[in-house]
Amino acid sequence: MSETIFVSQTTQTSETILVIDDDTDILALLEMSLASDGFQVITASDGISGLQLAKTDQPDLILLDVMMPQMDGLQVIEKLKADTETNTIPVLWLTAKTQTEDKLRGLEIGGDDYITKPFDLREVTARINAVLGRTRPVKYINPLINAMGESFSEAGVAELGSHLQAAAEIQLKLLPEKPPVFNEFDFATMFRSSTSVSGDFYDFIPLSDTHLGVVLGDVKGHGIPAALLMVMIQTASRLLSNQSDSPATVLKRINTLLFHNTDLEQFATMVYGILEINTGRFTYANGGHCPPIHFITDSGDHQQVEESGNRVELLETGGMLIGAFDIATFSSDTCLLSPGDVLLLYTDGVTETEGQTPNNYYGEERLINCFSKNLTLSAESLCDVLQTDLMEFSGTTQLKDDRAVVVIKRTDTQATPT
Amino acid sequence: MFDITTDAQNTVIVHVQGKIIGNTVAQFRTEIEQQLQNGNNKLIVDLKNVPLLDSTALGVIIVTLQVLQRAGGKLVLLNPQKAVSSILDITRLSSILEVYETEEAARNAFS
After folding, report:
1. Could you tell me if A11 lies within 8 Å of chain B, comparing CB atoms?
2. Distance between CA A316 and CA A77 in Å, rounded?
3. What is the dihedral of CA A365, A371, A374, A378, to 10 degrees?
4. Which residues pair with A211 in a beta bridge?
5. Rounded to the nearest 5°, which phi and psi values hold at A155?
6. Which among A386, A382, A341 has a CA at the least distance from the CA of A188?
7. How confident is the model at residue A358 (pLDDT cuts 50, 70, 90)?
8. How far is A319 from chain B (nearest CA, A)?
9. Whole-number average pLDDT of chain A
10. What are the residues whose beta carbons fall under 8 Å from the beta carbon of A184, sequence distance 6 or more?
11. Under a CB-based contact definition with an 8 Å cutoff, are residues A369 and A382 in contact?
């Protein structure tokens, strides 16, 4: 099996310290102490294996003993500095008190600081943090340098920043500026992004005077990769949808397009539906997305009765998430929006909003309650109420996930024949 | 975060501990990738102690599933908890993933 199975690079979550010292007692002591300070610790008891580990494990910092048999610390650092794979790793010397000359020589040829044996463990941690504090920003910017190559410069980074800004603006422009206007329906939307560009999206596609395509979805991940895929899906759904094809057919087409043109690991969940303005029929297919909620205000023959007495119907019919499986099949279903009914489409950024205690999420139930109590309000006011309730629940306006919401309310106004 | 066990039939069980979200997905990806590169194509991912996973983690599972299918192997999930189960249901991954509640049943899936 090839090593290119997965696309993204792996990232280290905590910083790694390599300790090179021939005194195994010191190795054990430092390993225990630094591990308890939250560092990953790797050790080598001689210069040669230390050099090898520095190359293979790419530690964030090396603690290097000066006096070692065979290859001493000074020889080790010379080799570290001569190798492009290791020459940026900061080195902290471990020296005996009497080796003052070594200290100076060591610093001259590239050590960042030194610690005198016998040492105080707290001092070791403090020195390490001081050095890492200087090198951390460099480490964080390394992926940017690698990605930008020769265009990495003050002007280049500024340009990248402005491109990011422009991307965010383009994406916002792709979303419908205003919800559509019909006498029979009241529309409202909410869109918030946790980063400058988002993987969430919604769209209204006019299919005819009486048929409106409604799309809402969520692309895996965040940031630019998610946004690019989102643009692709949005364009595809505009091009591939028409009044005569069922939502299931359209999802199947988008699935095929995505499957053949993106990595396996790239996928989206989405709902596509066609709203018949004259009748209130909403024919939809759900591609692995959290089910839209139909709030029923009228009496009728429906599936579920919610606790508070309001009826809700979850729009679950459809198929798998989009873009990951060629074999995916989809089916469509229809729900009828009667006057006063509300249809809520949303992304999981809403229900996965974190509360103020750990492992406590907003959830579908609270979402249903929030809407059920306010069904007489306009679509826009319902969005406002939701926004307030989410802020109250999380205690913050900071977003961890992108969020998109579409609210469709069938008003009591009767269709005016023309 | 991982505990790996291998039985006599070369079925590898990756016991995962903790949420697979954000930064920890990279560790999960690396661990699974390692198993695939070692040629282990009978894989059980034990989700008993995983309270939550995110869409990126789902992507890793999706790729693994298909890579193993093509290699004539299989991926099986063991004991997903409520939140994870619900994600598998909503995305309909539960319709193509083999999910078992006991280790014995998961192992039997390979015989």
Report:
1. yes
2. 62
3. 180
4. A276
5. -65, -40
6. A382
7. confident
8. 7
9. 85
10. A277, A278, A280, A410, A411, A413, A414, A415
11. no
d(CA B30, CA B32): 6
CB contact under 8 A, B63 and A291: no
| CA-based nearest residue to A342, from A183, A188, A179 | A188
Q: Give the B-side interface with A, CB within 8 Å.
A: 23-24, 26-27, 29-30, 33, 36-37, 39, 51-52, 55-56, 58-60, 62-63, 66-67, 71, 90-93, 95-96
Kindly list the domain boundaries of chain A, sorted by start residue.
16-150, 166-410
Residue that is written with structure tokens 């999981």 in the block = A348
The CATH number for A166-410, chosen from 3.60.40.10, 3.10.330.20, 2.60.40.730, 3.90.1530.10, is 3.60.40.10
CA distance A145 to A228: 22
What are the tens digits of pLDDT across the range A109-149? Answer: 677 888 888 888 888 999 898 888 877 776 667 777 777 77
What tokens appear for A333 in the block? Answer: 């279903």
Suggest the residue from B24, B42, B55, B86 to mutate for an interface test with chain A (most A CBs closer than 10 A): B55
CA distance A86 to A52: 10
Cβ of residue A252 closer than 8 Å to a chain B Cβ: no
- What is the fold of A16-150? Rossmann fold (3.40.50)
Q: Count of alpha carbons within 13 Å of A138, Cβ hemisphere only?
A: 10
Domain ranges of chain B: 2-41+48-108
Give this complex's ipTM: 0.84
Per-residue pLDDT for A5 more than 60? no
Lowest mean pLDDT, pick from A62-66, A130-134, B94-98:
A130-134
Q: Which CATH class is domain B2-41+48-108?
A: alpha beta
